[in-house]
Amino acid sequence: MKIERRFHPAQVEIHSSPARFRVVDAGRRFGKTRLGVWECVEVALAGGRAWWVAPSYPISKVGWRPLRKIGRQIPGAQVNLSDTSVIFPGGGEVRVRSADNPDSLRGDGLDFVVMDECAFMKPGAWAEALRPALSDKLGRALFISTPRGRNWFWELYQRGVRGEEGYQSFTFPTASN
Hints:
Order of helices and strands: HEHEHEEEEHEHE
Helix content: 25-40%
Radius of gyration: 15 Å
Largest sheet: 8 strands, mixed
């Protein structure tokens, strides 16, 4: 089944990147959430496991609302409100999680993760929980955030700027939408 998604040119540039770890520093209303949600859905429709991770439960609802809406449009998809997940025909799934307790993110192997507003998360959510969950499947990550000084998100962004293998960094103003 094909559900139409529309990306603006800057989103297409990010989506088309072959980098395993894409770091997006963009203004509010750029379309980071839309991009991340669609990428999660594409992974799940192909049978993979994706997580949408936000700094807190209230912020996770920003990704959950469009994900739930898309899931309801796909015949056979199961939208589970109690555990904020969508299970797609073929077994792929997207789960929405909170990083307020990084230890709660341990355990599952993942094909893809979106870290929404990751500049506002504890660095251990990535380094100690999510990065290892991607290892066995060589999973990919999309880091999306507005900046918050020179923290671990800034350090990830610098890896792409330096051209480190597997990383690509993007920056766009809101006006790129």
